[in-house]
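Researcher: Next entry in the queue.
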Amino acid sequence: MQSVIHVDLGERSYDIEIAPDAIDQLGERMRSLDLGKKVLLVSNPVVFRHYGDRAMASLRDRGFEVAHCIIMAGEQYKTLNSIQKIYGQALENQLERSSTMVALGGGVIGDMTGFAAATWLRGMNFIQVPTTLLAMVDASIGGKTGVNHPKGKNLIGAFYQPRLVLIDPKVLKTLPAREFRAGMAEVIKYGVIWDEALFEKMERCDRLDQLRFLPEELLHDILVRSCQSKVDVVVQDEREAGLRAILNYGHTIGHAVESLTRYKVTNHGEAVAIGMVAASRCAVQLKCWDEACDARQFELIEKTGLPTKLPSNLDIEKILETLKTDKKVKDGKVRFILPKRIGEATISDRVTSDLLREILPTLQ
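Model: Structure for this entry, 364 residues:
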């Protein structure tokens, strides 16, 4: 099964291509985009060991000059120090503005490579080859790039669209089960905020906690529908002036959890799952949506094997303090994404500290 989704952003438009063994077509697809000869492939040690040779062989077979840069995986490495390493390789290999940086890895690699591409020589070509479910359905699409600051996640960054997103579902076979579940958190998010049919498809599946329980057809549908959901939103609001903020459903509390635990206790998807539970319960209290929808979401998160409780010993007052540095703060108020029904969400500034003091203890 193959699918192509077009991201229509005028001169910044590009395609998302989903196909088995797509990684072996990287060179051919880049050649068709008429890119410069020099390529810097950025990856992490594990992904590079699995797929680096194939990706580089594909590029060399089509006449590209390829160098590579290996960055450690993990949010704790998503820093300006890692960006400096990419810059160093770009300088050493004399990359030009017509050159291309290729991100081969998960969301961390994609975010850092995109930010490096956006800022080196004031902007060069950038290709996403995501290797995790989370990166395939979320991080690789939409042009958000950046790194973390010690005081908060993704506070340093730029909007910078890739020239192509190339998704090979077969690489998910080497993805650890925990990372697969992390990606499913973002898929559930799309079901809640945008695509009711996707949500219902997942409800009908007996198990969602491991790749092997998903029929191939369902996996393809999850990839296509999730990518299309994000594209639908991004083409209407590329720079998050309004609608695009709904893509942050579950991320407000989620980012605080990640930051306060120094990215060592929960991964991104796990934190988002916890954040969705919290946001859902706030929505019930504010009468945005009902307890039946809250229960359906909770059951789907549990079926995916994702956490629904805050990490132990996490201080609620510290969570509230961290929220003040969130990127979604506007006029001093934290904007929460709250669900209205399965398939629709809204942006709200009605979630007060007092409400969170009431809701968050139920997650302990």
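Model: The radius of gyration is 20 Å.
Researcher: Noted, moving on.
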